[in-house]
């Protein structure tokens, strides 16, 4: 029975500052490094065969630190932009609570958690647009987002799930995916059959591995966090309150 573990990166500098991060590349904090190490310790008994990450530093660093903790730094790692965080458009870099004070909590909740409500888009000339980041220079311009709602993330993440991760699982490999709050929420929505409305209430803590097992038809059998359930619940609640 194949196993899949999904792991949101450890705390980043903009998580600490309560900013919308999106595709902005920011490093881990000291706490984020500690969370990555703790995640590695929790996953130490799982014999992974392959790792998938986004192209963003906070996910890559988390994967590297966790693998080192597991003495598994030799594992093959595949990185892909389709696992990147949701693009928050013109909100990127803004403080979440301050944005809620300006635009109102209902509007910010719709931007953060509304399934089909994207934030204001970036202009192509804005330095924050991914067209100006060399890691995406080979991609067709029309796939680069200027903003995304969660439905957009589902649409761009699922092809990677079906074309890259599913074949790994079907071949009997144990897979680790290290990514972001929203790209992993998109995957959870698919795996657990969560509705468009209910996915707004799903919040992923940083550095908390979640283990899925599947039957021979790749139907989910179990999906549970590793670690202390009370600590994970408290961390998830804190994520929900980031915009006040």
Mean of pLDDT: 96
In terms of structural class, how would the helical and strand content be classed?
Answer: alpha/beta
Strand content: 5-15%
Low-confidence stretches: none
Neighbour order of strands in the largest sheet? 3-2-4-1-5-6
Q: Classify the helix fraction into a percent range.
A: 25-40%
Annotation field: number of helices = 8
Which oligomeric form is depicted?
single chain
How would you describe the shape? globular
Distance between the termini: 42 Å
Query: CATH superfamily, please?
Result: Phosphoglycerate mutase-like
Walk me through this protein's architecture.
The chain has 244 residues and is α/β, with parallel strands linked by helices. The protein has one domain (3-238): Phosphoglycerate mutase-like (Rossmann fold, 3-Layer(aba) Sandwich), CATH 3.40.50. The chain has helices spanning 13-16, 30-42, 57-69, 96-103, 105-113, 150-170, 181-192, 229-240, and strands at residues 3-8, 50-53, 77-79, 175-179, 210-214, 220-225. The mean pLDDT is 96.
């Amino acid at each position: 029975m194949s196993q899949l573990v999904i792991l949101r990166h450890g705390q980043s500098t903009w998580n600490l500052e309560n900013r919308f991060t999106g595709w902005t590349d920011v490093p881990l904090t000291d706490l984020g490094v500690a969370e990555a190490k703790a995640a590695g310790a929790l996953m130490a008994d799982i014999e992974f065969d392959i790792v998938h990450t986004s192209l963003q530093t906070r996910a890559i660093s988390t994967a590297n630190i966790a693998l080192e903790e597991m003495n598994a730094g030799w594992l093959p790692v595949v990185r892909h932009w389709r696992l990147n965080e949701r693009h928050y458009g013109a909100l990127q870099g803004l403080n979440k609570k301050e944005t809620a004070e300006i635009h109102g909590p209902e509007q910010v909740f719709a931007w953060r958690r509304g399934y089909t409500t994207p934030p204001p888009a970036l202009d192509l000339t804005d330095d924050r647009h991914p067209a100006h980041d060399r890691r995406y220079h080979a991609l067709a311009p029309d796939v680069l987002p200027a903003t995304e709602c969660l439905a957009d993330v589902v649409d761009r993440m699922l092809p990677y799930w079906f074309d890259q991760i599913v074949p790994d699982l079907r071949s009997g490999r144990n897979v680790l995916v290290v990514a972001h709050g929203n790209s992993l929420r998109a995957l959870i929505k698919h795996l657990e059959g969560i509705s468009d409305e209910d996915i707004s209430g799903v919040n992923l803590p940083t550095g908390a591995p979640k283990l899925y097992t599947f039957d021979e038809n790749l139907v989910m059998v179990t999906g549970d966090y590793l670690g202390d359930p009370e600590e994970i619940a408290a961390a998830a609640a804190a994520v929900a309150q980031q915009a006040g």
